[in-house]
Amino acid sequence: MFDVNAIRADFPILKREVNGKPLVYLDNGASAQKPQVVIDAITRGYAEEYSNVHRGLHFLSNLATEKYESTRDIVRKFINAPSEDEIVFTSGTTEGINLISYAWAAPRFEAGDEIVLSVLEHHANIVPWHFLRERQGVVLKWVEPDANGNLDPQAVLDAVGPKTKLVAVTHCSNVLGTIVDVKTICAGAREQGVPVLVDGSQSAVHMPVDVQDIGCDFFAITGHKLYGPSGSGAMFIAKERMAEMRPFMGGGDMIREVGRDEVSYNDAPMKFEAGTPGIVQTIGMGVALDYLMNIGMENVARHEHDLRTYADEKLRGLNWLNLQGNPHDKAAIFSFTIDGAGHPHDISTVLDKKGVAVRAGSHCAMPLMDHLGINASCRASFGMYNTREEVDKLVDALELCHELFA
């Protein structure tokens, strides 16, 4: 049974006040708060168990290595990957997508080759491909969502042509909450022999993820959005694609033998994990994923669907509030502006005075902002510990904004 009050009790920061008001944290799309079990794991990792991994035979090194490597299988279970050997640890989705750009795409793509992207993408799934455009003459082909922010999977597949070498698409928009039918995109792209990279930064925290069912070649997650530490993340890379990759970074751990005239590399996934990693961060991510799996991602999805439905009804009752997009299938993420208000930063500041934390800006999605015809918006993004009562507090704070700016 999903008990939101019991879950809230696991997050110490939710007990604090901001500006004399109980904290209403609605900036989960940027980064989620951490449960006590993750905080304890991080503290214990540094205070009692810290050592470098893979390189020592002493007790602490073996302990740290065991905990660090056990996270690989936790990630595998969380996204239902076929093998833990297909899980590469990263510092987050940004590093993960850059890894694919440098290690897989750059050696294979030539001038005129195409990458299909959607306008919904976060900059982390845009800029690495611009590098290839600038440096190698790769062509970026853009697919736009409809007026409500839905992304038609057939429109993505229609953009695939003889020169398409990759489809890179988000699973869930960080601005509009749009859930993209990546399974249909992957199936259609596979028929044409085109690999698909899925940015799962937002989706993995809101719903169950099964990369085998999706059928993608690459899938990125980031720990700090999954109630884990910043500086942690993982990339699922299908074995077929991993065999096509060259090392991206060189250093310790990713080598087998190093000589003056030659070098041989470690087996994957170690081959793509150079240097001392984020040891405690990765262990903390594993604890966070275990925490989520114990709750059940199906239960999280049901709770957040209820929040989304309730918030949608309440926010659409404010006829001076401009909600950006209305996707038919979305996470509990709402992007908005207010008639007569100044910059969204002004709205965010007023909300903060009421203890309500939201995001304001372009949300690292400037192509989508251009598509929507705005420079910036406010975004309220809900997590599993948020409640209907907090939706009401958001609405009350927005009504104060309207009074101040009207």
Overview of this protein structure:
- By secondary structure, this protein is α/β, with parallel strands linked by helices.
- The chain folds into two domains: 4-28 and 296-405, Aspartate Aminotransferase, domain 1 (Alpha-Beta Complex), CATH 3.90.1150.10; 39-294, Type I PLP-dependent aspartate aminotransferase-like (Major domain) (Aspartate Aminotransferase, domain 2).
- It contains 14 helices and 17 strands.
- It has a seven-stranded mixed sheet, with helices on both faces. Strands 13-14-17-16 form a four-stranded antiparallel sheet, with helices on one face.
- Helix 2 (36-47) runs antiparallel to helix 10 (279-295) and helix 11 (297-316) packs parallel to helix 14 (388-405).
- Its EC number is 2.8.1.7.
Write the layout of secondary structure elements.
Blueprint: H1 4-9, E1 17-18, E2 21-22, E3 24-25, H2 36-47, H3 59-79, E4 87-90, H4 93-105, E5 114-118, H5 127-136, E6 139-143, H6 153-158, E7 164-170, H7 182-191, E8 196-199, H8 211-214, E9 218-222, E10 233-237, H9 239-242, E11 255-258, E12 263-265, H10 279-295, H11 297-316, E13 321-323, E14 333-338, H12 344-353, E15 356-357, E16 359-361, H13 366-372, E17 377-381, H14 388-405
Parallel strand pairs: 3-15, 5-6, 5-7, 7-8, 8-9
Antiparallel strand pairs: 1-2, 4-10, 9-10, 11-12, 13-14, 14-17, 16-17
Give the gist of this structure.
By secondary structure, the chain is of the alpha/beta class. The chain has 14 helices and 17 strands.
